[in-house]
């Protein structure tokens, strides 16, 4: 059994690789011990494998080394801080440095898992460790163990590139079931590994590991910081998205409210317009009615005026007719009288012939009477004309008054209509001002 490491007194040969790769088996074989019964514990059951490092001394070409078997630290799932600490602690005890790092990997296609293990080794030991890595293929077929070329031909491109990186330092872990320990092939494979160990120049020092650990710590911190920064950025982004969504929602709400307010305003506007139209329609009907009444009234007045005028004219005409008839009668009477006078004069002339002197006298008297009669007739005529004139004046005066009365009535109605129109205008003006004030208020609320 390997010892729990207190102190490493010789340069170390590290066995690294994933759990089950065959590290402990190789360690035992290098120590010329049965592969499953040497100082290092071999187990097919991964759970029971020890998680501590073990060491054993080995002499290669007369030089003593400490072979150190490590737990499967680089299987990504099983690695823990405790195991890494254990390895680091063990390596720090290697005061003579690490001569070689035997990276044991199964001889199959270079899988993502193996690449992960290699990355883990490089990260843990640092880039400087590449110069000390020797790749050892385990679980090889009998033919591969027998012939290195067969093994080489089985590699894929990543394996080739990896082997190139480590300057072709590679070996094969022999299988005792195919080639027993005393078989030359078995010996040859172990001999190659030992030759590589002996040929390594210098050692990987604990300082290098320290530096690597510090770098790892730094990288880890940077990674953590980066992750923290990304996390914060992500949170910021989430917050920003949430804020934008909230803003968007608020904006949508405001827009919705604005739409509702506009719809309400529009509805109120339509209602107001409709009411105004109705009021205007009522107003218009009222004005129309008033106009119609005015027209009817004017027609009535006109009819009345015409009737009155006709009546006055008729009256005047009748009066004139009457006066004419009276005049005719008077004329007739006058002619009658003239005839009578003529007859009388005739008789008088006849009598005159008989009574010359009386006749002359009578003629003189007659002339005087005629003169008197003429004067009287003239007076009567003047008097009649004067009466006619007065009557005409009276009728004209009466007609003028009637016309003035009708004109005043018409003016009064006109003024009433104007006052009504003024009231309507003020009513519209007041309504317009109310709308403007209402409109101002809405703009202030917004
Ligand atoms: N066929 C074959 N089996 C191996 C080889 N190396 C190890 N084993 C088996 O693999 C299992 C794990 O081996 P072990 O040395 O404990 O692996 P470790 O976890 O890397 O130390 C054991 O059952 C071994 O017998 C090998 O080269 N060929
Ligand atoms: Mg082991």
From TrEMBL:
Any GO MF annotation of the entry: GTP binding
Membrane topology listed for this record: Single-pass membrane protein
Alphabetically ordered keywords of this record: Chloroplast, GTP-binding, Hydrolase, Magnesium, Membrane, Metal-binding, Nucleotide-binding, Plastid, Plastid outer membrane, Protein transport, Transmembrane, Transmembrane helix, Transport
PROSITE patterns: G_AIG1
GO cellular component, one term: membrane
Residue span, AIG1-type G domain: 8-214
GO biological process, one term: protein transport
Major place of residence: membrane
Subcellular location, record wording: Membrane; Plastid, Chloroplast outer membrane
Family annotation (SUPFAM superfamilies): P-loop containing nucleoside triphosphate hydrolases
Residue segments, region Disordered: 214-392
Cofactor (UniProt): Mg(2+)
Annotated protein name in UniProt: AIG1-type G domain-containing protein
UniProt organism field: Rhizophagus irregularis (strain DAOM 197198w)
Lineage of the organism: Eukaryota, Fungi, Fungi incertae sedis, Mucoromycota, Glomeromycotina
């Amino acid at each position: 059994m390997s010892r729990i490491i207190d102190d490493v007194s010789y340069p170390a040969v590290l066995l690294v690789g994933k759990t089950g790769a065959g590290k402990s088996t190789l360690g035992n074989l290098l120590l010329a011990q049965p592969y499953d019964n040497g100082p290092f514990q071999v187990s097919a059951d991964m759970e029971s494998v020890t998680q501590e490092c073990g060491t054993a001394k080995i002499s290669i070409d007369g030089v003593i080394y400490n072979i150190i078997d490590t737990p499967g630290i680089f299987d990504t799932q099983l690695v823990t801080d405790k195991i890494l600490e254990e390895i680091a602690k063990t390596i720090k005890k290697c005061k003579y440095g690490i001569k070689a790092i035997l990276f044991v990997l199964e001889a199959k296609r270079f899988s993502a898992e193996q690449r992960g293990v290699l990355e883990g080794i490089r990260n843990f030991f640092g880039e400087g460790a590449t110069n000390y890595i020797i790749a050892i293929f385990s679980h090889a077929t009998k033919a591969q163990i027998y012939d290195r070329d067969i093994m080489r031909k089985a590699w894929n491109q990543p394996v080739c590139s990896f082997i190139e990186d480590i300057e072709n330092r590679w070996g094969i872990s022999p299988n005792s079931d195919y080639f027993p320990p005393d078989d030359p092939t078995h010996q040859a494979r172990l001999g190659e590994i030992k030759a590589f160990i002996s040929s390594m120049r210098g050692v990987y020092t604990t300082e290098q590991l320290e530096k690597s650990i510090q770098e790892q710590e730094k990288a880890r911190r940077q990674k953590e910081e980066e992750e923290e920064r990304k996390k914060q950025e992500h949170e910021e982004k989430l917050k920003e998205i949430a804020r934008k969504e909230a803003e968007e929602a608020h904006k949508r709400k405001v827009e919705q409210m604005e739409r509702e307010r506009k719809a309400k305003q529009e509805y109120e506007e339509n209602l107001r317009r409709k009411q105004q139209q109705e009021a205007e329609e009522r107003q218009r009907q009222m004005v129309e009615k008033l106009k119609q009444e005015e027209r009817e009234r004017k027609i009535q007045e006109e009819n009345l005026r015409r009737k009155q005028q006709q009546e006055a004219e008729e009256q005047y005409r009748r009066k004139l007719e009457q006066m004419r008839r009276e005049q005719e009668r008077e004329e007739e009477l006058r002619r009658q009288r003239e005839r009578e006078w003529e007859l009388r004069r005739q008789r008088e002339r006849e009598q005159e012939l008989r009574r010359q002197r009386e006749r002359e006298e009578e003629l003189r008297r007659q002339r005087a009477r005629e003169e008197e009669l003429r004067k009287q007739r003239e007076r009567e005529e003047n008097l009649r004309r004067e009466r006619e004139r007065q009557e005409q004046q009276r009728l004209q005066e009466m007609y003028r008054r009637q016309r003035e009365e009708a004109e005043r009535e018409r003016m009064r109605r006109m003024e009433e209509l104007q006052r009504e129109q003024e009231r309507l205008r003020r009513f519209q003006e007041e309504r317009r001002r109310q709308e403007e004030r209402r409109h101002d208020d809405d703009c202030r609320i917004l």
